[in-house]
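Readers of this paper often ask what the protein records in our data store actually look like. The remainder of this section carries one protein's record, kept here as part of the documentation.

:::
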Amino acid sequence: MERTCENGTLRAQDAGRTVTLVGWVAKRRNLGSLVFIDLRDRSGIVQLTFDETMAEKVKDVRNEYVLQVTGTVQKRKDANPNLATGEIEVLVNKVTIVNTSDVLPIDLSDDTTSSEDTRLKYRYLDLRRHSLQQNLILRHKVCMIARNNLDKKGFVEVETPILAKPTPEGARDYLVPSRIYNGHFWALPQSPQIYKQLLMIGGMEKYFQIARCFRDEDLRADRQPEFTQIDIEMSFGDEDTVFATVEDLMKDIFKGVKNYDLEDHFIRITWNECMRRFGSDKPDLRFGNEIQDITDLFNDTEFAVFKNTIENKGMIGAVKFENAADKYSRKALDKLQDFVKHGFKAKALAYLKMADGTLSGSIVKPLSDGEKAAVVERLGMKDNDLVLVIADKPRVVETSLGALRVRLAHELNIIPKENNYKFLWVTDFPMFEYSEEEQRWGAAHHPFTAPKEEDVDKLFTDPEHVSSRAYDLVCNGYELLSGSIRIHDQDLQEKVFEAIGMTKEKAQERFGFFLDAFKFGTPPHGGVGIGLERLTMILAGTDNIRDVVAFPTTNSSLDLMSEAPGTVDKEQLDVLGIEISARER
C-alpha cells in the first residue's frame, strides 16, 4: 500500500507536507462537524482531523479499523506534550477503509486491565500494544548488537541441529519420535553444548549462535519451555578470555539500547562467598543488607537454642534492616516466620528491634547483657532498626536469610529501580551435587565442566568439596548466563563420568560419538550461554519473561492461543508405532 512515512515520525517541521498514512484506529472522537481519529502504526500515533466535508466518510469507523488516509500536516492549536507527534495533526482529504474490526476482547492500553490469560489467548491482538512491540524491537536490537560485536572479534555464526540424540543429563528432554526408525527418538536440544564443543574440536576456534533451546521443566515468571540463548564458545582461552569477551559484549548492548555505560570490569565473587554474604548464587547487589555471621558472639551462651546450634556445628546468622522496626508488626513477623519455615526448612525466625537505645524482640530475655551489647555493636544497630536472626545448619541459615534479604528489600522499597545495573561473576561453583533420591553425586553444571586443577585429586575422596571452573554472570538478582571451561582431556573426562556413577559402557552409549572425538587433539575451550529473554527482560524493565516473547506459554506450558499441546490422530500415532496408555492424574 502507498505510504509516505510512518505515523509516529511526523513533527512540527513537517507542517504543509502532504502525506499518505496507514494504520489502526486507536481512538475516535466525534464533535459533530469535526471527527478526530488517532491512527496507530508500529512507530506511534498521529491525530487525524476530518472536517465537515470528510466526517460523513468515517461516521461508521470504530476502534481497530484499518485506514489509509491522505492529507496535509498542520500545526495543532492545542499541542499534546505527552505525544511525540503532539505538535501536529493531519487534515485528511482522502480516506479508504481498508478493513473493519469486531469489538476487541481485550484492552490494548499499556496499563491494560485485561487478565494475562485473556491476553495470551488473543496474543495476536495483545501484540498491538506499544509496550510489547517496543520489547520485541529491543530484543531485535540486542541480537543485532551481539552479532556485530562477535563478528568483529572473529566469531563465526554456525547453526547446530535441532533434532539430536537424547542425552538425559540435567532437565528432561522434549522427545521427537522417528517415523522411519520406530521406537527411536530424537531430543530437542536443551542447549547446543555437545555440538559447540565438537566445533572447537573441529577447529572453528570461535563460534556463536542465537540458538533455540528446549527444556521440559517446571516453569516460572522468568522461564519458558523453549527459549533462546546467545551461545558462545572459544578455543585456546581461559576464564579471563571468556569474561573479557562477555563484558565487552554487555557494554555494547547496554550502551546501544539504554545509552548506559557499564563499569570497565565486573567484580568476581566465589560461590562460597556469595552464599555466605547473600544466601544466594545470584545476589542482587543494588542494595546491601548482607548476612552477618554472629555465631562467635555466643560461644559461652546459656541460651539453649544457640548453645545447641553451636554444639552441632551450626550457624547463627543475622540480617539488619534500617528504619524498618515500626513497619513490621508481630503479625507481619509471623508471616516471615512461616515463609522461612515452609520455604527453606528453617526451625525458627527470631527478631530484635531497637527503640530509644533499648533492645526488644523474641530473644531478648534469654540473652545476657554482654551478648546483647555485642550484637548491637557488631551490627551497628540504631533506633528503629530491625534484625532478623536464624540459628540452624549453615546452608539453611544462609538461604533463609538470603530470601528474607530480597523479600524485605522489595517490601521496604529500598532497591533503586531506574538505570541501575549491578553485574558480578559468580565463580568456583561446586562440581557435584548429591541426589538423595538416587543416592549418588551428580554433575552440578553438566558433566563436561572442568574441575579446578587443584581439586582433581578429590574427585573420588571428597566430591563435596571439589570446585569447578563453572561461572555465572548475574545482574540485579538474575542469572544472565551460565558457562564453564570444559574438559578437554579424555582421561579426566572418564574420571568425571566415573565420579558421578556413570560406567564406561553407559558413557559410551550416551556420548560415544562425542568421547571418540576427544581422541583427536581436543583444544582447551570454554564458553557461555546468555539467556536472551532474561537479558531483554532486564533491559525492558519488566519482571515477566512473557513480556519479551512474541508467543509465550502459561506457567503450565500451555499455549492458550493455539491450544497447544494438542492431540493427534490415531493414524499418525500408528505410523510412529506409538500407543497412548491411560494414566491416572
Q: What stands out?
A: The chain has a mean pLDDT of 94. The CA atoms of residues 340 and 346 lie 6 Å apart.
